[in-house]
From TrEMBL:
UniProt cross-references to Pfam families, sorted A to Z: NUDIX
Protein name in the entry: 8-oxo-dGTP pyrophosphatase MutT (NUDIX family)
Higher taxonomy: Bacteria, Bacillati, Actinomycetota, Actinomycetes, Streptosporangiales
InterPro entries documented for this protein: NUDIX_hydrolase-like_dom_sf (IPR015797), NUDIX_hydrolase_dom (IPR000086)
Signal sequence, renumbered to the chain: none
Residues in Nudix hydrolase domain copies: 1-116
Amino acid sequence: MVIRDERGLLLRNERQEWELPGGKTDLGETSQECVAREIEKETAWPVMVGPIPDSWMYHIDAVDRRVFIITYGCRTTARAPVRVSHEHKEAALVGRDKIDGLVMPEGYKHSVRAWFDHPLR
């Protein structure tokens, strides 16, 4: 989860849901390295990876798969607009007050709120 200017970075996927940037850890890579690599790959924003404000289990109904989501709070000094990779359809910077109205899994909403409210943010 990246917050810049009091707005959180979200990406819209092919299912028309908003989600956080991220991905799978490569062999020999730490989870923090994975988060930094994936965010930069998906948005062109370099980040500094911070604490874990939330984690949860996500069930993907279409393929009956469970994925353990670990949300890291991240910071960026990037001032450029987000460059959306081929993995997503759109990017947005969204204020905390707009999260509840988004088409987005509840777990992601909880993670976003957790980082907005985290004392170390």
